[in-house]
Design goal:
23% strand, binds 4-amino-1,4-dioxobutan-2-aminium adenosine-5'-monophosphate, binds magnesium ion, 2 domains, BirA Bifunctional Protein, domain 2, elongated
Length: 457
């Protein structure tokens, strides 16, 4: 007798009347007056549950089966039959049910079947994944991750795992987490952990600079991994630990990297929507409106493209007072993206005072060759630029940004030895996932969300 997952069953891999074994957990149980229990089982291999029917003549019916509650684990043996229920194709007639883990005090089970708020569930990140909602999110995250890798592989990009512990602050500003060694008794005694390295080290805010060195040898590269920012932004869009995809291409100018980011977004959206339509429709039905419509805007390349200077003019026309050189406030951004355009928005050529040191100066000497992509209800999902490849100008910028030339010696080498124009972008993976799932708060897009004040795990 073979084991089958619930996904196998709904993928028609089991013959009718075949005797099989299924492992899983109880989602819910209903007992009829006639002494039959209908147990909905999930195993997380798909969103669907399997209804298993237990009759009272089973030897452990009174002792165990009747006591099953949401969350108990079990293994059932039985025959697959066609279900009479409309919402599911198959059900299982139980021959044997073995309880693996009972819940002694079901009233204390933190995620009992009643409705819970997302905020409440965040305290139980280790259990919330048992809900249908977080199962759907996990499935979409997984497909999105592999689709991103597929696109880049097909386009002949080489993946590079850039350092997580680093001495450099790529973005040149913003707070970083320091890295210390606790593996030192003396240091522990002094309650002043000794630094494991000679210089100060941090958790990376972006792998871009080291990625650039690989782009200047392999032409098309990317990294995809955890990134850390310790700024105290207690918002629905910021995490202290998030995943970022960074893409870097040699011989590409800003125009080409904007084009690449658009066909990238189109591809990953088309493929993820197709593969996750069941999960996305479930989320749209029960949790959030317009997910599919918003995704279709990415597929149809329904973007607005605007220069920063024109966006400033537009904001003023719309009655939002802002001058050239100022950062667009959250309120202004929300207004223009969510209410005015209601579509993805690409903003290009920001003033250099607003952007990082590595962005290439435009001939106007005021702006840099930069781009940000904003999505409705998510805000900035992607940031990119053409990089400053001219040593002299880079040196001036390092000086202006108060960044020691010596520390960036190897980065400067890249401008000394066969420099070429090159460009890249970074995407916040959890923000992207919010757009694919309709999640309102980024803390529900990360399996174990970390924000400065809330480190449960
Ligand atoms: O705009 P950022 O800071 O750009 C960079 O780090 C560049 N080095 C990328 C590159 O060109 N290679 O960050 C990139 C993206 C943002 O657009 C945003 O989506 C996401 O990372 N992001 C965050 N996501 C969650 N929480 C935070 N605290 C984030 N900060 C940035
Ligand atoms: Mg940015």
């Amino acid at each position: 007798m073979k084991n089958f997952s619930i996904k196998d069953i709904y993928s028609n891999k089991v013959k009718i009347n075949e005797k099989i074994k299924v492992y899983g957990w109880v989602r819910s149980k209903r007992d009829s007056k006639k002494g039959i229990s209908f147990i909905d089982i999930f195993d997380g291999t798909c969103l669907l549950t399997l209804q298993a029917v237990a009759k009272s003549n089973l030897e452990n019916y009174e002792k165990e089966i009747i006591k099953l509650t949401s969350g108990c684990s079990l293994v059932v043996t039985g025959n697959i039959i066609f279900s009479r229920r409309q919402e599911q194709k198959y059900e299982l007639l139980i021959i044997k049910l073995k309880v693996l883990g009972l819940i002694n005090n079901p009233d204390k089970y933190p995620i009992s079947l009643k409705k819970h708020t997302f905020e409440y569930l965040r305290k139980f990140a280790h259990l919330r994944v048992r809900t249908k909602f977080f199962c759907a999110i996990s499935k979409i995250r997984n497909v999105l991750f592999s689709t991103i890798n597929n696109f880049l592989y097909k386009k002949n990009f080489t993946w590079v795992p850039t350092p997580i512990i680093t001495g450099l602050n790529t973005e040149g500003s913003g707070a970083m987490f320091s890295v210390f060694s606790s593996n030192n008794d003396k240091a522990k005694k002094l309650s002043n952990f000794k630094n494991i390295f000679k210089n100060k080290n941090f958790l990376t805010v972006s792998g871009q600079l080291t990625l650039e060195s690989y782009a200047l040898a392999l032409s098309k590269v990317y990294n995809f991994g955890p990134t850390f920012r310790s700024e105290d932004s207690n918002t629905k869009r910021h995490l202290s630990e998030f995943w970022m995809l960074e893409v870097e291409v040699a011989f590409f100018n800003l125009k080409k990297i904007v084009h690449l980011s658009k066909i990238f977004l189109k591809y990953i959206t088309e493929h993820t929507l197709e593969k996750c339509i069941f999960e996305i429709e479930f989320l749209e039905k029960y949790f959030s409106k317009n997910i599919i419509k918003n995704l279709k805007n990415l597929i149809n390349l329904d973007y607005v493209e605007i220069e920063y200077k024109d966006l400033i003019k537009l904001l003023n026309v719309l009655g939002k007072s802002i001058s050239f050189g100022e950062d667009i406030s959250l309120e202004q951004e929300k207004y223009v993206v969510n209410k005015h355009f209601c579509k993805p928005l690409i903003v290009k050529n920001f003033p250099k005072n607003l952007k990082a040191f590595y962005m290439r100066d435009n001939p106007d000497n005021v702006t840099v060759a930069s781009m940000d992509i904003f999505l409705p209800n998510i805000g900035e999902v992607l940031g990119g630029s053409q990089r400053e490849e001219r040593l002299k100008i880079l040196d001036n910028k390092l000086k202006k940004f108060n960044l020691g030339k010596d520390k960036y010696w190897w980065y400067r080498d890249l401008r000394k030895y066969g420099t070429v124009i090159h460009s890249g972008f970074g995407i916040g993976f959890e923000r992207l996932l919010c757009y694919f799932t309709g999640i309102d708060n980024i803390r529900d897009a990360s399996p174990f969300p970390k924000t400065l004040r809330k480190f449960y795990y």
